[in-house]
From TrEMBL:
Protein name: Cellulose synthase/poly-beta-1,6-N-acetylglucosamine synthase-like glycosyltransferase
Protein's organism: Priestia iocasae
Source organism, top-level taxon: Bacteria
Keyword Transmembrane helix attributed: yes
Pfam annotation, one family: YphA
Length: 202
């Protein structure tokens, strides 16, 4: 069922930001983005004779706006990184259209893995990984839709399957960031424990 990953992980994210995160402006922002994405996911709009999902537009606009948090030189670099990710996404979709036999597992998982590989190779910070991955997926879907439009094929931009890919990708990046923080915490804890142990034996 297309869209199931998106709703499942979005509600999980909402529960985490609402009940487990500290009460900060960042928490409020994340919660609002998740709730707006869920509400807009059931609304489609017509743009230039194309059907576009509202959640797709919302996430793309929010991601573009988030580019303002970095300096101009880095904006260029992150734009290029996102463009490479978008080309990877569009290329995958075109190969699937040409020869779908080689899709051995769920397409959403394969595309997420491809985007994760590109973004982890090119982007180093957690926040920018999230932003660049969302832009890569959304722009890649736009590129793919333009190709299909030239062939007169009907296509919904930002379909539930794309939202699934966004959700899986963002979840994987967040889980990895959590693992890194947990590892760093335990390293500090073990270092303190070893120092206390040495002090005790002295």
């Amino acid at each position: 069922m297309e869209g199931i990953y998106f709703y499942w992980f979005a509600w999980m994210g909402w529960i985490f930001t609402t009940f487990l995160m500290k009460k900060t402006k960042q928490r409020l922002l994340y919660t609002a983005i998740i709730l707006c994405s869920i509400m807009l996911s059931v609304i489609n709009v017509q743009l230039l004779d194309m059907e576009v999902n509202s959640a797709f537009l919302f996430l793309l606009i929010i991601s573009y706006m988030s580019f303002s948090i970095v300096k101009a030189k880095k904006q260029v670099y992150y734009f290029i990184a996102s463009f490479i990710g978008a080309l990877a996404y569009a290329s995958f979709c075109l190969f699937e259209l040409y020869d779908p036999v080689w899709i051995l597992i769920d397409k959403r998982v394969m595309v997420s893995a491809l985007i994760l590989y590109v973004i982890f190779m090119l982007v180093k910070t957690y926040r920018m990984r999230i932003i660049c991955s969302v832009i890569s997926i959304c722009q890649g879907d736009l590129f793919f839709s333009f190709v299909l439009r030239t062939l007169s094929f009907p296509y919904e931009i930002g379909a539930p399957s794309l939202l699934d890919i966004v959700a899986v990708t963002v979840l994987c990046i967040s889980v990895w960031e959590g693992v890194l923080k947990a590892t760093a915490y335990f390293d500090v804890y073990l270092l303190k424990w070893n120092k206390q142990k040495q002090t005790t034996y002295k």
